[in-house]
Amino acid sequence: MSGGPTEGDVALACMRELVGALVALGLTDACVSPGSRSTPLALALARDGRVRVHVHLDERAAGFFALGLGKATGRPAAVACTSGTAAAELLPAAVEAHMARVPLLLLTADRPPELRGVGANQTIEQVGLYGGYVRWSHDAAVPGDRPDPGHWHGLALEAWGRSLRHPPGPVHLNLPFREPLVPSRGARGGGDVRLALGQPATGPPQPTAEDARDLVGLLGASERGLVLAGSLRAPAPAVLELAERAGWPVAAEPTSGLRVPGTLEAGQALLGDQGFLASHAPEIVLQVGAAPTSRAGLAAAAAAERLAIVDPDDLVADPHRRAERRFVVDPEALCRKALTAAPARGETAWIRDWRAADRRARAALDAALDAWSEPSEPRIARDVAGWMPEGGTLVVASSLPVRDLDLAMRPRVGLRVLANRGAGGIVGFVSTALGIAAAGGPTVARSGDLSLLHDVGSLLWRARRGPDLVLVVPNNDGGAIFSMLPQRDLPELEPLFVTPHGLDLAEICRAAGAGHALVLRAEDLREALERARAAGGLQVIEVPVERSATVRHRAELHAAVAAALR
Fold first, then answer.
1. pLDDT in tens, 494-505
2. Is the backbone of residue 375 left (phi > 0), alpha (psi -120 to 50) or beta?
3. pTM for this structure?
């Protein structure tokens, strides 16, 4: 190839064709981590002015940042990395994207085939690395072996389409490169791709007339029904219209997009009160979306005489294997079809009882929350959700934060609530929240102290680079949830499960260049939120909470609700 283009020139040209085709399909954002083997790919992304490139030191953080972008926009973001263990760092994000049905493009650089299996440095088996957690995986040709633009356009179309095809999820394109990796000075080659590429069909299957008839039959079988709305990627307001027509109460989780006026204001408190449920056990439960997050919601679904599930993303959301019917269809379209023939019961004694009990439970919750002078995690959840500006996004961590929000949040409009509830872990929470914030709009993340520390590298790296994000962190010095689980009776509770860290979050924020505010009184949180939003950048609001108070507060809330319902 003397005098002609080098291997690096060809690789850059091919990657520019690949990136250009992805941009033509709708790619706007890519996360890149430093590495030598990924040089042609990184340069192609960086030199295409239509792509926002977010640089991360940590590949795991890059993966979750890209996942957050995909979660917020519904479009896949790309995450590109070098070979070896860097590629393995993307597995947690791939798992969450798979479980939560989030589109994601995993672009991993690799050694060429002749360097695999011979002990070459930074070489692992990357083909099939993500197993069943990707919708599609392909080991591409070395660019020098397939330099024709059409080949790379085809790969882009396949990857993009597979990621968005219902149900959406991650795809993996493994990209081997030979040395030299750096192109000749001034080499550009290709990349200005403006193709009339068709978009893949997206969205859940449409319901049939039989689906609608079956749902109408279920609604007509008993007035003693209950709708449980779990996590949904897109709200389905027709669910609420249908429940109103049938006279069934709706307990909607915040991540369903349906926690709006008209649904139960204290649904989880009612479901968790055994005295109330003893006389108000639903005969039929219609579960929409993912399986319930709370134990009370799961128990209600498991105990119902009849359970039907509307499962648009084919999550198989039936952990107790109780469902007699699972509708793997668009819930909005299904309920719209059923509305024309569903029974109109009006206000029955059943729905009156639920609404009256709900008013008493909500009043008891608020009175108890407002009575405490010390901060409490459920009140933090309620007050942050209530304060959020119209059109804002609240990102909530797993473990206690998402459960506190489900317990305490009042129904409202104009708020989007997102969480990593696919696999339900705390890994990558800060990175995910930053990715969601990068998509635009006011964003607040309700973290736990361990969720923050588990992903503290993202705080350290992104604080001076944006985007704007407010992190509200109740700090109880460890994992308080274990004090409410069977592990609480073990002598090893503190060192093995609670894992108290004793770290000074203010010093960590100072080192990172993030803003920090300390809130010691519950009534001061709103003012701190206003200041943090006005300051911009990455702001941390720390609220110290005694771990013993975390347990006590929940017991008092349940006791207050029980008393109000008697």
1. 888 888 888 999
2. beta
3. 0.94
